[in-house]
Amino acid sequence: YRLNFLGVTRCDSSIPTNNKLKYELYLSKKSANTTEIKGVVTNSVPLDDSLDLEFKLAVKDSIGGWKENAFIYKTPKACSSLKKILGPAWNPVLDSVGAYNATCPMAVGVYKVSGIDTDVFKISNFPKSFFYGTYKFRFFYSKNNEVYGCFIIVVEVKRPWETE
Question: Keyword set for this entry (predicted)?
Fold first, then answer.
């Protein structure tokens, strides 16, 4: 399959968060075939294994609405789990924020995302087969049911030969 990134945004106000891990990200078109994620990530607390990592996936239905919670994944040890999920994409993603040879935990600080080429996610450990369609991934970091940070990525999963 081929991924077409449609948007990156903060979660809306329906998801209460303390913003201790704040993501202000956006998509930037570098060329006709290259899309990058840029912005700023602010860690007021370390991104470590005391947090949980959670994905909530919504799928766009045939009439344009979202079917929320089509897939839910929650795992402890947020930093180590994220590193495992990103796999070979871990270093390129963290290099783009200036955290070279980064390991867990990610320190407190402000990280400028200079441009993550979205093609890098092809080498991650995400499933290699997926149903075609449009998906909204909500990424949460939480601890004791308190949300520390949340952001959304909207992607289209397309057949490799689809151009539009």
Answer: Signal
Q: How far apart (Å, rounded) are the C-alpha atoms in residues 143 and 73?
A: 15
Pairing status of strand 66-75 against strand 146-158 = unpaired
pLDDT of residue 100: 87
**Architecture, CATH, for domain 2-158:** Distorted Sandwich (2.70)
34, amino acid identity: T
The token pair at 6 is 């449609």
Task: Supply 90's token pair.
Answer: 């871990």
Q: In what order do the strands lie in the sheet with 109-117?
A: 21-31, 34-43, 109-117
Q: Look at residue 161 and tell me whether its pLDDT is greater than 90.
A: no
C-alpha count within 13 angstroms, C-beta hemisphere, residue 15: 19
Q: What is the pLDDT of residues 31-88, one digit of tens each?
A: 988 999 999 999 999 999 999 999 999 999 999 999 999 999 999 999 999 999 999 9
- At residue 142, the pLDDT reads 97
Rounded to whole angstroms, the Cα distance separating 75 from 125 reads 15
Tokens 């919504």, residue located: 58
